[in-house]
Design goal:
5-stranded mixed β-sheet; alpha+beta; 31 helices; about 55% helix; globular; 6-stranded antiparallel β-sheet; 13 strands
């Protein structure tokens, strides 16, 4: 085993893992929630730590990749390096391409052994890598001491007002384990740290905060505890230390940090915080406390670098703020394992294949052997898998190279020398698949219905000549390979000509092949009336997911004969036949594509409309559906109000109530203090003037009894009952007492 090359091997696998996570993240940015994207990057960080262990602990599956090499002639050379003897060693393969230096007795120049140079380079590599890991691990190891010092210099908060808010926030966040609430003696950003015993630390100025800000901060920090973000942050720091030379890991850590904060913001908003008020709290905290540094493993509430993006996300009413449940978490973990295991077990076994050269012509050591002159199957080598398809007489073929993967279902008759009994049985197989552009040759084994191995490709010179005769130019071997992958040949050109398409050049043909525009696609789209004139127009449709099945489905839904641009627009915005059918089943017989797209963009889907219909809001106009969705009035909110006796409300009343921050939690808090059966107007007025359950509770503790709504609002507007009201009253009493003494002495 070659350690430095093993490190490179792990880095390549880590890159593939990060690329997969990046693609999933890109897919989720349109419709997914921040919680889903945060989970993707959390699982990626865990997988990066498990990857080296799994790569060594799990059994290996070697994939043979033949690579052409030029044997070194012995005439005129000394100390020629021996050919590679291990198919799985990259170092041996590199040795097979090495060309020894000519020697001459007349030249007595000092020479350096290539092995010595390689040894020095590897030692330097190890020293630099080890030093970087050590520095970052030492820094990570200092974090517990820094946090312990912060804990010692802070005090536990015992104020009943704080503790009541803290308990309510913990209940809303579903935090069942004990969490310490501390207040620092200095100014710092509100933060959370600790995995075994989570701790929330607030700045010294937190006592001056309003109840709304206190509640928002506590909800955000406890959201970190509920999501176990502190543990994920430690794993992320460890991954960054072990993979510190890899820029992709640092980028992934930054993406995780961004999505983690957005997910916690979504939980705060779901708990009833007003978007504008919460955005104002974030902005004020970032401005006043953003310059104070925080420990690396502590989770600060508002970093200045993320602020603009977070504020826009908080104020975006159409944003998906869904929370992942246990079922979704289990599916995500299973999917990550399914991605990690193949990456850990697969090994590239490079097999050198000799290619003769003129023994009298030395090859310069400073340049690689030119392999472009002759096209061999090893130039386009890769790995393959075949299994029987559910369609009778068909198989599922998957081809993979370093450039990507390609899979499709094909008739078994397309493969010469392969039968269904061979696939179902066990043993070695060798077969071919002939395309107009060239021939694929497959070698491998079959076992339990799955076959796999390596393949090569041989270009067809006659096909290149045919393209040249038709005025398209002569394709390179690589271009013929790309054309063969999609079975794009002369029949494809004839089909284009039949439907009036402009004659493409070779690059246009290759582009069509790479984007999945093949003979069947051209024929099917033409049968549906789409003859677009150029191959690039077809490529655009294909790239946006517009296929014959989608077109037929939209036509069956009443949208037949749509222009190509409208098809692309509808597909991009998620308007598909299923969406159209779901809305029509609810009575929304929409024939205006623009209206459908607008509804979809605002998050109005059949499930949302069904939920409102079940609560009595049937046959709502589409504009009302969009308005309720934009203002956060969803079935859960309506059910919450109904549970407190507020039924039969109009859409206007629900929107107004939601906009003013009156939610079930607010109503429940007031009801527990004796304020039941209040009208919605009274609730809105109280909320607008800052009268919340905590404020009412403070007044009652001071003996005020059950005050009227108007009296509560008047006192709140005067500032009575605030955190410092008792101190002000005592100071006023002392001043009165002192003035009376002075008056008596003077009299």
């Amino acid at each position: 085993m070659n350690p430095p090359l093993d490190i490179v091997d792990v880095a390549i696998r880590a890159s593939a893992l990060l690329a997969t996570a990046g693609l999933v993240d890109l897919f989720l940015r349109r419709r997914g929630s921040a919680a889903a994207r945060s989970l993707v990057w959390s699982l990626t960080m865990a997988a990066l730590l498990v990857l080296p262990i799994a790569s060594y602990a799990l059994p290996h599956w070697s994939v043979r990749i033949p690579v052409a090499r030029t044997p070194v002639p012995t005439t005129g050379y000394a100390d020629a390096m021996p050919p590679a003897t291990s198919a799985g060693s990259d170092a041996a393969t590199r040795a097979s391409f090495a060309v020894p230096t000519p020697t001459s007795p007349a030249v007595d120049a000092p020479t350096t052994s290539p092995a010595a140079v390689l040894t020095i380079a590897l030692a330097s590599f190890y020293a630099l890598y080890g030093a970087g890991v050590l520095i970052l691990l030492v820094r990570l190891g200092r974090e517990p001491f820094v946090l312990r010092r912060l804990t010692r210099t802070s005090r536990e908060i015992g104020d009943p007002a704080w503790l009541r808010l803290f308990d309510e926030a913990a209940q809303q966040s579903r935090v069942g384990r004990p969490v310490r609430l501390l207040q620092s003696t200095g100014e710092l950003m509100p933060m959370t740290y600790g995995t075994r015993r989570p701790t929330v630390v607030l700045p010294a100025s937190a006592d001056a905060w309003t109840d709304d800000r206190r509640r928002a901060v506590l909800l955000h920090e406890l959201a970190h505890v509920a999501r176990r973000d502190c543990l994920v942050q430690k794993l992320t720091s460890l991954a960054c230390a072990l993979y510190w030379p890899h820029p992709g890991v640092w980028w992934a850590a930054r993406r995780l940090r961004t999505e983690r904060e957005l997910a916690c913001d979504d939980l705060v908003l779901a708990a009833g915080a007003g978007p504008r008020e919460y955005a104002g709290h974030l902005l004020d905290l970032a401005r006043s406390l953003g310059a104070v540094p925080a420990p690396a493993t502590a989770l600060g509430m508002a970093r200045a670098r993320q602020l603009e993006h977070r504020l826009l996300a908080v104020l975006d009413a159409a944003r998906n703020r869904a929370v992942l449940h246990r079922g979704g978490l289990a599916v995500a973990i299973a999917a990550s394992i399914a991605v990690l295991v193949p990456m850990a077990v697969m090994r590239a076994a490079v097999v050198p294949v000799d290619r003769p050269i003129d023994a009298g012509t030395p090859v310069p050591a400073s340049s690689p052997v030119d392999q472009q002159a002759t096209s061999t199957s090893s130039e386009f080598a890769g790995v393959w898998e075949i299994r029987l398809s559910r369609e009778s007489g068909s198989v599922q073929l998957s081809l993979r190279t370093l450039d990507g993967s390609h899979g499709r279902t094909l008739p078994l008759t397309r493969f010469e020398g392969l039968t269904s009994s061979q696939i179902s049985g066990a043993g070695a197989v060798h077969f071919t698949s002939r395309r107009e552009a060239g021939t694929f040759a497959f070698d491998g084994v079959c076992r339990n219905g799955l076959c796999g191995g390596t393949y090569g490709f041989e270009p067809n010179p006659a096909f290149a000549a045919q393209l040249a005769k038709r005025g398209l130019g002569a394709p390179t071997a690589r271009e013929q390979y790309d054309l063969a992958m999609q079975d794009v040949g002369i029949a494809f050109l004839d089909e284009l000509s039949t439907h009036g398409y402009q004659k493409p050049d070779v690059q246009g043909l290759v582009r069509a092949a790479q984007h999945g525009v093949d003979l069947e696609y051209v024929r099917a789209m033409a049968g549906l009336g789409y003859r677009l004139g150029t191959v690039d127009a077809l490529v655009r449709l294909r790239d946006h997911g517009v296929d014959p099945g989608y077109v037929r489905g939209m036509a069956a839904s009443g949208f037949s004969g749509l222009p190509a641009d409208d098809l692309v627009r509808a597909r991009d915005h998620g308007v598909d036949p299923g969406y159209v059918k779901g809305m029509r089943d609810l009575g929304y017989d929409l024939n205006d594509l623009t209206r459908l797209i607008a509804a979809r963009d605002h998050g109005v889907d059949p499930e949302f409309a069904k939920g409102l219909a079940a609560l009595g809001f049937k046959n709502l106009p589409l504009d009302d559906l969009i308005r309720t969705r934009d203002h956060g009035v969803d079935p859960e909110y309506v059910r919450g109000l109904a549970a407190h006796g507020y039924t039969g409300l109009t859409i206007e009343a629900l929107v107004k109530t939601r906009d003013h921050g009156v939610d079930p939690a607010y109503i429940r808090g007031l009801a527990d203090l004796g304020y039941k059966a209040l009208t919605l107007d009274e609730l809105v007025r109280m909320r607008d003037h800052g009268v919340d359950p905590e404020y009412v509770r403070r007044l009652q503790q001071r003996g005020s009894g059950r005050l009227s709504v108007d009296e509560l609002i008047r006192r709140r507007d005067r500032g009575d009952g605030g955190p410092h009201a008792a101190a002000r009253e005592m100071a006023a009493a002392l001043r009165t007492f002192w003035h009376s003494i002075v008056t008596r002495l003077r009299g």
